[in-house]
Amino acid sequence: MDNKTPVLQLRNITKRFGDITANEKVDLDVYKGEILALLGENGSGKTTLMNMISGIYFPDEGEILVNGRQVAISKPEDAFELGIGMIHQHFKLVDVLTATENIILGLKEKGGLDLKNAAKKIRQICDTYGFEIDPAQKIYNMSVSQKQTVEIVKVLYRNADILILDEPTAVLTPQETEKLFQVLRNMKRDGKSVIIITHKMNEVLEISDRVAILRKGRYICDMETKNANVQELTDAMVGHSVTLNIDRPEPLDPKPRILVEHLTVKSQDGVTKLNDISFEARSGEILGIAGIAGSGQKELLEAIAGLQPAENGHVYFVEDNGEKEDLIGMDPLKIAAKGVSLSFVPEDRLGMGLVGNMDLAENMMLRSFRRGKSVFTDRKYPYDLAEHVVKELDVNTPSIATPVRKLSGGNVQKVLVGREISSAPMVLLTAYAVRGLDINSSYTIYDLINRQKKNGVAVVYVGEDLDVLLELCDRILVLCDGKVSGLVDGKNAVKNEVGLMMTKVGGGAANV
Amino acid sequence: MFDIVAFIPRAVVQGIPLLFGCVGETITEKSGNLNLGTPGIMYVGGICGVIGAFLYEQKAGAHMIGFLAIAIPILCCLIGSLLMGLIYCFLTVTLRANQNVTGLAMTTFGVGIGNFFGGSLIKLSGADVPSIALSKTHAFISATLPFAKKLGWFGKIFLSYGFLAYAAIAMAIIAAIMLKKTRAGLNLRAIGESPATADAAGISVIRYKYIVTCMGAMIAGLGGLYYVMDFASGVWSNDAFGDRGWLAIALVIFTIWRPNIAIFASILFGGLCILHMFIPTGTNLAVKELYKGIPYLVTIIVLIITSLRNKRENQPPGSLGLSYFREDR
User: Fold this and answer.
1) What is the C-alpha to C-alpha distance for residues A86 and A152, in angstroms, rounded to an integer?
2) Which of A121, A154, A356, B225 could form a disulfide bond with B77, CB atoms 3.0-4.6 angstroms apart?
3) How many domains does chain B contain in total?
4) Is there a contact between A95 and B312 if contact means CB atoms under 8 Å apart?
């Protein structure tokens, strides 16, 4: 193992943003033909470090060596020239352009703009590594997985030898993830080096050769993946020992709380988003909802919360004494007053629920501004609540008066989920509550959700990570293309079966 | 009877200043800069051309050389509008000031500059009417092909304009080809849609924004020059240019950011602007006034239709009006 050649070496890299030190004296080596996993909690500076390699940020101190030669990467172009390409967590693609146009964007090839030739070269790359994309397709018509493929091809088109992937699997289904990993293995075989940032431990163990760990902006250690295990990695990442079990307490006296009957929802353009959905959510129970992104999860939660008009069907709120009341057509405010609380974490994390330019207390106020009788708002209550959430959930923020937009993704989510839980709901609807969160923060959130469950709240949990759904939820409703594909018991469910149900209604007869 | 042969040339000359403004604003907006300073820039372009022409006419007296009589006003106009473009870029791109506020301020500023120097020149020339006439320069700039008049209706409709009118159409075509077929055009579209993406792809966002916005300003400035020197027969009077700059910006939306459509759209707008002069005599004056609102009405209708159809390609550039800072979090 000693004859490995380092293609990329970082020495003493430091980067500060104002008073915040994102990276401090980081040393890191990447070798030829290896897949290196970069691990760290949210805000530990992984993305910042990678951005410095790809020329988005410029390090304040330290040096970068590529193939043993010291280089200055002051802009993305420099990175391309050195054979470094990064696939960002938020895709850097122009929606209204085609795949080809996006891929050749910014290239300084000789001659005029020759889209045909470029498309030919793209097809070649696709054949070599096993991608499937249509070069002439517009980005806005693509699925998340296709967009990611375009990003990867873009980097390969520029002959990159070092690929950086920032949380590539966060938005993929298990099947798509498997496909991506196959492609990464093909690249490795081709002698390329891959750096992958991910929070999912099982993926780290599956795909990587070596793991490097960052904590609070500092480099902690690296280890061979084959000698590592989840517990060890997590402890190194967090800095102290953590327990990695998701509790699943037996539901206490479950009673029907929300009754959905034959719910059909259409989008504004008339596309059917939910097709004849029926299920029941019970108090003191976590109902998981699995499905490929965009299978109707968002519409379902919104329909329950009264934000989405229903074409057909009923959503009953069932009181303890068995009285039923239809929520469809009811004012969202009234529904919220009944104790139905929605916390949806969209892909960009902010979009729904929080206002980026407002500070923590003001964001708390979005829920409470109707309290009090005078025309002036009560600023004391939200301020206290914000302080409470910050303390309880260990939110990393300079102060309560910091605009939410400036917090790292994980902290933003804690604020959102913390606020929703604080209202002591009867029904808690959460979607992607741990989206992009590191393992430690994720467990904090699971814990919070479980606490709600013990309090007798009916929790509807829309999640992406099947492993978590299987561990956390009492029952799992699988959606596929707006239809109920199956309802399985959390304890006895098999991951592969659920995965198949996600892609095909009923899961199909094959592969059982 | 509606006189189509008389109507079209008048619609065209009305439309050409709008076409200049529209093409300039379109490429500017494609870079993500919403330059609401365009009306002001067109004023500045106009008055700078007037100043250049005025000084040259005074200096040369009776012995004006054709080339200089054309080149000096154009050069002055370009320099003036370039300066306006640079100010706008410095404020919005480098200092990242709010584009709407900056643009509106630039318009107020540009109109003020135009009227200030316009007023000064009128004083200097000692004219007894509140305007300044540069008829000699007008003669040079609006010169048409000598045989155009002999070609009857064909010559009247197609060949009766000064060279600046053809330059405007050429510029619209060049801009359309540039946007659609060239690497620079692709880069520019990407910057307008998503500067962060363009930046990550190694395109110099700031440089593109500066260059394109300044080019756009110069093209728009020529619209002001054309208005004074050709359309208005070399006569500058304060505020005569009116709200043509705003019409040009409306035209950008009307043409859904496509310079090739702008050629026809500007002539259509020009036609709509003068339609009130061609309706039968005896129509109520109040009704006549209503006709002047048609271009704006049409723009609103087009806006409604395009937003109803909701086609992604017809939407404004994604980052229009937003400033870009790479290390913004």
Assistant:
1) 8
2) B225
3) 1
4) yes
Pairing of strands A210-215, A35-39: parallel
Within A254-365, strands assigned E span 256-266, 272-282, 285-290, 312-318, 324-326, 340-344
Task: Please tell me whether residues A413 and A430 are part of one structural domain.
Answer: no
Instruction: Tell me, yes or no, whether A176 lies in a domain.
Output: yes
Q: What is the CATH number of the domain that holds A283?
A: 3.40.50.300
Task: Please indicate whether, in this complex, the C-beta atoms of A76 and B200 are within 8 angstroms of each other.
Answer: yes
Instruction: List the domain range (segments joined by +) for residue A292.
Output: 256-341+425-509
Other C-beta atoms lying within 10 Å of the C-beta of residue B101: 12
Chain A residues interacting with chain B (CB cutoff of 8 angstroms)? 17, 54, 56-57, 75-77, 80, 86, 88, 92-97, 101-102, 104-108, 112-113, 138, 140, 154, 269, 405-406
What SS3 class is residue B282?
coil
CA angle B160, B162, B166 (to 5 degrees): 95
Q: How far apart are CA A192 and CA A188, in angstroms?
A: 5
Q: Of B217, B223, B316, B237, nearest to B270 (Cα)?
A: B223
CATH of residue B126's domain is 1.10.3470
Cα torsion A324, A329, A334, A337: sign: positive
Domain count, chain A: 3
- Same domain for A302 and A186, yes or no, is no
Cβ neighbours around B59 below 10 Å, total:
11
How far apart CA B56 and CA B50 sit, in angstroms, is 10
Q: Assess whether A395 and A498 both reside in one domain.
A: no
Burial (CB count <10 Å: 0-12, 13-18, 19+), residue A189 = exposed
Domain residues for the domain of B172 are: 4-328
Whether A71 is covered by a domain: the verdict is yes
- Give a yes or no: residue A7 inside a domain: yes
ipTM of model: 0.83
For residues A188 and A41, membership in a common domain is answered with yes
Per-residue pLDDT of chain A (512 residues; tens, 9 = 90+): 445 788 999 999 999 887 778 898 999 999 999 999 998 887 788 888 998 998 888 899 999 999 989 999 988 888 888 999 999 877 889 989 999 999 998 887 777 788 899 999 999 999 888 888 899 999 988 888 889 899 999 999 988 899 999 888 877 777 788 889 999 999 999 889 999 998 788 888 889 999 999 988 899 888 898 888 888 888 888 887 777 777 788 887 888 888 899 999 888 777 888 888 899 999 889 999 988 777 888 888 888 888 888 888 888 888 888 788 888 888 877 887 777 777 666 555 555 678 888 888 888 888 777 666 677 777 788 888 888 888 877 787 888 888 888 777 677 878 887 887 777 788 888 888 777 677 777 888 888 888 888 888 888 998 877 888 888 899 999 988 888 888 888 888 888 888 888 877 766 543 33
Size of interface A-B (CB pairs under 8 A): 80
Statement to judge: residues A311 and A272 lie in one domain: yes
Residue in A92, A154, A350, A412 to test binding to B, most B beta-carbons within 10 Å: A92
Query: CA triplet A401, A405, A410: central angle to 5 degrees?
Result: 100
Q: Which of A423, A448, A469 delimits the end of a domain? A: A423
* Closest of B314, B206, B325, B220 to residue B258, by C-alpha: B314
Scanning every residue of chain B, which has its alpha carbon at the shortest distance from the alpha carbon of A81?
B202
**Residues facing residue A14 across a β-bridge:** A61
Beta bridge partners of A264: A312
What amino acid occupies position B226? Y
Q: Hey, are the CB atoms on A93 and B326 less than 8 Å from each other? A: no
Residue A245 within any structural domain of the chain? no
Put simply, the answer to whether B194 touches A112 (Cβ < 8 Å) is: no
